[in-house]
Design a protein that fits this description.
Blueprint lengths: L1 E11 L5 E11 L3 E5 L6 H8 L7 E6 L2 E2 L5 H10 E4 L3 H4 L6 H12 L13 H11 L16 H13 L5 E5 L7 H17 L3 E6 L2 H7 L2 E6 L2 E7 L10 H8 L2
Parallel strand pairs: 3-8, 3-9, 6-7, 7-8
Antiparallel strand pairs: 1-2, 1-4, 4-5, 9-10
Helix pairs in contact: 4-6, 6-7
Keywords: ATP-binding, Nucleotide-binding, Transport
Protein name: Peptide/nickel transport system ATP-binding protein
InterPro entries: AAA+_ATPase, ABC_transp_ATP-bind, ABC_transporter-like_ATP-bd, ABC_transporter-like_CS, P-loop_NTPase
Length: 253
């Protein structure tokens, strides 16, 4: 079943250069779909368009078969509940003035009227935060700290906990390990794999790192200069018919 369908999506910058150029793809429920490409190729712009954080010029986006491009702000609220994002820089994603527990509870407070939680239960703020921290393998007393008081790897786990707190259908992972050291990268990728299975999540995993994308994803898309130039299953990564640019990426990972 297709969870997300994108048809001929185009986003043009003011100077006339397309950031996203006629992009079409489907993301199936329960899968991790990888999107790889060098910095500046349009990956993050595509993610912002999918979330309606940025307008696009033409094309269509269907989430659970419902077109989202014409939704107003009130209609977008349930859509944004169902699609969450984890950004590259967790320090910038967390309010430095809020304790971790308050950052974790914020999505619940925003969407409590629309929520029907099945994996987590809200009996109290403290109990809810404890469940989330345990889900991302963090000590429960970390909730009383501020973002600057914890490590980069811990901060990224907090942003993941916040993303899963309202049990979305899809999480967009936009370079989620790029700012982490090698050991933290491996631990976060393992955690994300476990959460996808446990919580029955779907991922759009965006990265310039083909090794990480191939480790995480069942299918992989390659983006260059705003266009999708290659799409294939993980088992076809080294097939002869791969685009020359894909082969170039393979040669350096």
């Amino acid at each position: 079943m297709s969870l997300l369908t994108v048809k001929h999506l185009t986003k043009i910058y003011k100077e006339g250069r397309p950031a996203v150029n006629n992009v079409s793809f489907e993301l199936k429920k329960g899968e991790c779909l990888g999107l790889v490409g060098e910095s500046g190729c349009g990956k993050s712009t595509l993610a912002r368009c999918l979330l309606r954080m940025e307008p696009f010029d033409s094309g269509a986006i269907y989430f659970k078969e419902h077109a989202i491009e014409q939704l107003n702000e009130r209609q977008l609220k349930p859509h944004r509940k169902n699609i969450q994002i984890v950004f590259q820089n967790p320090a910038a994603a967390l309010n430095p003035k809020l304790k971790i527990k308050d950052s974790l509870i914020d999505p619940y407070d925003q969407y409590r009227k629309e929520l029907h939680l099945s994996h987590f239960s809200y009996t109290s703020k403290e109990a809810f935060v404890k469940q989330l921290l345990e889900a991302v393998e963090l000590p429960t007393d970390l909730g009383d700290r501020y973002p600057h008081e914890i490590s980069g790897g811990q901060r990224q786990r907090v942003t993941i906990a916040r993303a899963i707190s309202i049990e979305p259908d899809l999480i967009i992972l936009d370079e989620p390990t790029a700012s982490l050291d090698v050991i933290s990268q491996g631990a976060v990728l393992r955690l994300l794999t476990e959460l996808r299975t446990t919580l029955r999540l779907s991922y759009l995993f965006i990265s310039h790192d083909l090794a990480a994308v191939s480790q995480m994803s069942q299918r992989i898309m390659v983006m260059k200069a705003g266009k999708l130039i290659d799409q294939f299953s993980r088992s076809q990564l080294f097939a002869e018919e791969r685009d020359p640019y894909t082969k170039e990426l393979i040669s350096i990972f």
